[in-house]
Design goal:
Belongs to the SAT4 family. The protein is mainly alpha-helical. The chain is built from 14 helices and eight strands.
């Protein structure tokens, strides 16, 4: 190997050693091949495609959520505000991931990264970690605030559980944001260490820069993020368990809130790959590709799962409107009854009328028949004579999801 190429190879390996957090054993570094800047092996553009696709999906979901909360339920709250903040930060993170994959070569082997890109690559890593912490914490706070809106009429223990979750996420946010800012002293040393001759500057000779090791703190941060995801998923499932209804009627709510387990799986995989990146494989930029994939899936699926309950009122309205249109069409083709028309007075044709025979409430056979009823019997004042008032009727789970910001004192729920 010519002297200049050998010297360049040694410098590249030195920079790659620093890029991996200065934890790679010398034997592993020595086993790395010579850099290939012309036609290197890459992971492809799958990360870019995934990021764009997730941005499109979450943009549609968030737009529908905002419309539903502003125009249908008219119950826009702090949970919606934090969801929007998480979405904006998520778009910024996805954009940064796309730029990093395209221009800073995430998905290449660490020894194939040109030394000129080490400084911007480290800047991109630092901002990506910050956006990840801010965005994932924001969406978990949004989820827990939504549970607070639902748990107004439930036990004090569940209320405390949501407050504990909120406090834990705020502590996580503060600790790891501060840690990220204090990772190097001064902070710009996190990326300026890769500038040739930067350590030889007079200021650095008088006050040398120092950085903390990342091989423990980053995996711990990822593991705690997965743990808080699991907590935010379990809280609503415990809430559903307290509902005094048959298990069959709880299945839709269990299915709705169990989407969060997908987020937990993605966060766990990210934590595993982060540990592998810094303590096992050391091929930083190659494994970083996997870390960004699971970070994107964790965040964007968290936004989708957090918005799913808020979309149910729009879905219910759409299905109700379709049902009403079908009934109107049926009425057009239904012939009115002419039996005893002169004696019964003004008539109205009803497509289907259900009545119970047997005399006792809850017994007898339900008979479905087409009848004609006098218009006078549809007087709105007749509703007040019903022995079962609205206050005595069970509150549906859909109504709880649609009007979460309003106090509902009836603890009985139906799905």
């Amino acid at each position: 190997m010519p002297y200049t190429l050998a010297r360049k190879h040694s410098f590249t390996l030195l920079m790659a050693h620093i890029l991996t957090g200065s934890t790679a054993p010398p034997a592993i570094i020595a086993s790395w091949p010579a850099p290939n800047y012309v036609d290197p092996e890459t992971r492809g553009s799958g990360l870019i495609v995934l990021s764009i696709l997730l941005i499109i999906i979450t943009s549609i979901i968030i737009a529908i959520r905002i419309y539903t909360r502003l125009r249908i339920t008219r119950a826009f709250g702090f949970d919606d505000a934090f969801a929007i903040i998480a979405y904006i930060l998520g778009v910024a993170l996805s954009t940064l991931v796309i730029i990093g994959n395209k221009y800073y070569y995430s998905g290449r082997h660490v020894w194939d990264i040109p030394p000129a890109l080490f400084v911007p690559h480290r800047q991109y890593i630092w901002w990506g970690e910050l956006l990840y912490i801010l965005s994932t914490t924001s969406i978990k706070i949004s989820v827990l605030l939504f549970y607070r809106r639902l748990s107004i009429s439930f036990t004090k223990g569940l209320k405390r559980a949501t407050w504990i979750g909120l406090a834990a996420n705020l502590v996580y946010l503060c600790i790891f944001t501060v840690w990220l800012c204090l990772l190097c002293h001064p902070l710009n040393a996190y990326w300026d260490l890769y500038k040739p001759g930067w350590k030889q500057q007079p200021a650095q000779q008088l006050n040398p820069a120092s950085c903390l090791a990342e091989n423990i703190s980053l995996p711990v941060s990822s593991a705690l993020s997965a743990l808080t995801d699991l907590y935010a998923t379990l809280v609503p499932l415990v809430l559903v368990m307290t509902i005094q209804k048959p298990p069959k009627q709880k299945i839709p709510l269990y299915a709705l809130f169990s989407v969060g387990f997908l987020v937990v799986i993605f966060a766990t995989l990210r934590a595993i790959y982060t540990y592998k990146l810094l303590n096992v494989n050391y091929d930083f930029t190659w494994i970083l590709y996997d870390c960004w994939i699971y970070a994107e899936l964790e965040l964007q699926f968290a936004i989708i799962a957090a918005s799913a309950p808020a979309l149910r009122p729009l879905f219910n309205r759409a299905t109700s409107a379709a049902h009403k249109r079908g009934k109107r069409v049926s009425r057009v083709f239904q012939r009115p009854s002419t039996n005893n028309a002169a004696d019964a007075g003004p008539q109205i044709c009803l497509v289907e009328h259900h009545k119970k025979e047997g005399g006792k409430e809850g017994k007898g056979e339900v008979v479905s028949q087409t009848t004609s009823r006098p218009v006078e019997s549809l007087d709105p004042s007749a509703a007040s004579a019903s022995p079962r008032s609205w206050a005595q009727r069970p509150v549906s789970a859909d109504r709880i999801l649609e009007h979460g910001s309003r106090r509902i004192d009836n603890p009985h729920l139906t799905v």
